[in-house]
Design goal:
- This is Coenzyme A biosynthesis bifunctional protein CoaBC.
- InterPro entries: CoaB-like_sf (IPR035929), CoaBC (IPR005252), DNA/pantothenate-metab_flavo_C (IPR007085), Flavin_trans-like (IPR036551), Flavoprotein (IPR003382).
- Its EC number is 4.1.1.36, 6.3.2.5.
- By secondary structure, this protein is an alpha/beta fold.
- The chain has two domains: about 5-180, Rossmann fold (3-Layer(aba) Sandwich), CATH 3.40.50; about 190-400, 3-Layer(aba) Sandwich (Rossmann fold), CATH 3.40.50.10300.
- It is built from 13 helices and 19 strands.
- The chain has an eight-stranded mixed sheet, sandwiched between helices. Strands 2-1-3-4-5 form a five-stranded parallel sheet, with helices on both faces. Strands 6-7 form a two-stranded antiparallel sheet.
- Strand 1, helix 1 and strand 2 (about 30-35) form a beta-alpha-beta unit.
- Helix 1 (about 15-30) runs parallel beside helix 2 (about 45-55) and helix 9 packs across helix 13.
- The chain is elongated and about 85 Å long.
- The model has no long low-confidence stretch (mean pLDDT about 95).
- Bound molecules: cytidine-5'-triphosphate.
Length: about 400
C-alpha cells in the first residue's frame, strides 16, 4: 500500500522549529511527507533540515524543479495538507486565494483535508482581520485549530502558541483516518469532561478514583479534528493539553460542576466522560490528620455530591443541546445502563463494563452507546479514539436533525 501523502506547509514564524518534530513524527509513522516552506520560513529553519528529515526535495517557489514538480501536482496528490505554524499572513493569503509561492499554489490545488495550526502574537490572532480570515477558511471546510495559551516569543504570554507538535500529530492522524473533507462538527462548540475528581480529606489526602482521562482526551482530540471548538474540563489527568482545545483544570466534583455549568450555555453538546465522585468527605481538615497512639481513627463521614449529568440533562442550557453520559457497570451492564439513561435524562449513554483490567487506564475500550430514542450502537473492542468517533457520529446526527 502507498504511504499516505502529507504536505507539511511551514510559514515564517519562530515556531517553525517545532514543525521539525511534527515532521519527524509524521515520517516515522509511515507518511510520505513533502515539506513546502515559505521563503520566510527558511529564515528560521533551513531547507537542508527539511530535506534531510523528510527525505524529499524542498522548494519554496513554483519556479524550482519545474520539470519534476509541476506546482499543481503536490496539492493534487496530497491526502492531507497541514500548515504548521500558520502565520497571520498565510491565513490571509489562503482566505483570499492568493497564489504567489509554492505553498499558496498547493493550498489552492489541494482537494484533501487542509489543517492550519496557527501561531502568532495574541494581538495578531485576535485582530478582526485574522478572525475573519479564520472564519472564511473554516466555512470553506478547512480545519483551523485554536492556538494554545502560554509563553510566546520574548516575555509575552497569551493565546497564540503553536500547540505541542505531538498533539498536532494526533489531529493529523485523526483527520487522515477519517479521510473526508467535510469537518461535520464545524461551527459547533462541544464541552467534554475528563479524568477523575479528587475529594480532599486534608491538605495531603483525598478520595479519588482510577479514571485516567484517556477517553475524555480522545473525545476532545477527535472533536477538534472534526472542526469543533472544544472546551475540555480536565480533572487530575496530568496529560498534555490536546491541540486546539481550551482546557480548564479542576480538582473536585464541585469545581467540575462549576466549570461545566459555565461552559454549557454556549455548547451544542456536553459529554460527561469524567468519573465524578458521588460523595465527598463532610469535613475538610485544615491540617494533616494525625494518627494518635492507642486511638482508633475517626470514621470518615461522606455527603452527596451534586449529580452534574442529571442536572444539565434536566435543565438544558440551550434548546437542542445534546447531552452524553458515561456509565461504568460491573453487572447486568445493558439493563443497568438503560435504567441509568432514564434516571439521568441524557440523550446518549456510553455504557462500558469495568473490572480489574478493563477500561481504566487502558488504551482500549469496548462499549454500547444507548440512545434515549431506544437505539443501541455497539462499539467493538478497540482504541478509545474509535469509540470517540462513534460518539461524535451519533452527536452530529442528533445536532443535524436539530437545525
Ligand atoms: N456523573 C455526574 N455527577 C456525579 C456522578 C456522575 O455528572 N456526581 C456523571 C458521570 O460523568 C457519568 C455518569 O454520570 O457521565 C455516570 O456516572 P456513574 O457514576 O456511573 O453513575 P451513578 O449515577 O453514580 O450511578 P451508580 O452509582 O448507581 O453506578
Amino acid at each position: 500500500m502507498d504511504k499516505p501523502k502529507v504536505v507539511l506547509g511551514v510559514s515564517g514564524g519562530i515556531a517553525a522549529y517545532k514543525a521539525c518534530e511534527l515532521l519527524r513524527r509524521l515520517s516515522e509513522s509511515g507518511h510520505d511527507v513533502r515539506v513546502v516552506p515559505t521563503a520566510s520560513a527558511l529564515h528560521f529553519v533551513g531547507a537542508a533540515t527539511w530535506s534531510a528529515l523528510s527525505g524529499n526535495p524542498v522548494s519554496t517557489e513554483v519556479w524550482d524543479d519545474v520539470h519534476e514538480v509541476p506546482h499543481v501536482r503536490i496539492g493534487q496528490h496530497a491526502d492531507l495538507v497541514v500548515v504548521a505554524p500558520a502565520t497571520a499572513d498565510i491565513l490571509a493569503k489562503a482566505a483570499h486565494g492568493l497564489a504567489d509561492d509554492l505553498l499558496t499554489n498547493t493550498l489552492l490545488t489541494a482537494r484533501c483535508p487542509v489543517l492550519f495550526a496557527p501561531a502568532m502574537h495574541t494581538e495578531m490572532w485576535e485582530h478582526p482581520a485574522t478572525q475573519e480570515n479564520v472564519a472564511t477558511l473554516r466555512r470553506r471546510g478547512a480545519i483551523v485549530i485554536e492556538p494554545a495559551v502560554g509563553r510566546l516569543t520574548g516575555v509575552d504570554t497569551g493565546k497564540g502558541r503553536l500547540p505541542d507538535p505531538a498533539e498536532i500529530f494526533e489531529v493529523c492522524r485523526r483527520v487522515l483516518a477519517r479521510g473526508v473533507t467535510e469537518p461535520d462538527l464545524e461551527g459547533r462548540h462541544v464541552v467534554v469532561s475528563a479524568g477523575g475528581t479528587r475529594e480532599p480529606l486534608d491538605p495531603v489526602r483525598f478520595l479519588g478514583n482510577r479514571s485516567s482521562g484517556k477517553q475524555g482526551y480522545a473525545l476532545a482530540r477527535t472533536a477538534a479534528a472534526r472542526g469543533a471548538r472544544v472546551t475540555l474540563i480536565a480533572a487530575n489527568t496530568g496529560m498534555p493539553d490536546p491541540a486546539g482545545v481550551d482546557v480548564v483544570q479542576v480538582g473536585t466534583a464541585v469545581q467540575l460542576r462549576e466549570a461545566v455549568l459555565k461552559a454549557a450555555p454556549d455548547a451544542d453538546a456536553v459529554v460527561m466522560a469524567a468519573a465524578v465522585a458521588d460523595f465527598r468527605p463532610a469535613t475538610y481538615a485544615a491540617g494533616k490528620i494525625k494518627k494518635r497512639d492507642g486511638q482508633e481513627p475517626e470514621p470518615i463521614v461522606l455527603v452527596r455530591n451534586p449529580d452534574i449529568l442529571a442536572e444539565i440533562s434536566t435543565d438544558r442550557a440551550r434548546p437542542g443541546q445534546v447531552v452524553v453520559g458515561f456509565a461504568a457497570e460491573t453487572d447486568d451492564v445493558l439493563a443497568n445502563g438503560r435504567k441509568k439513561l432514564e434516571r439521568k435524562g441524557c440523550d446518549l449513554l456510553v455504557v462500558n463494563e469495568v473490572g480489574e483490567r478493563k477500561t481504566f487506564g487502558s488504551e482500549e475500550n469496548e462499549a454500547v452507546v444507548l440512545g434515549a430514542d431506544g437505539t443501541e450502537t455497539p462499539v467493538p473492542y478497540g482504541p478509545k479514539e474509535a469509540l470517540a468517533e462513534t460518539v461524535w457520529d451519533l452527536v452530529a446526527r442528533r445536532l443535524g436533525s436539530n437545525v
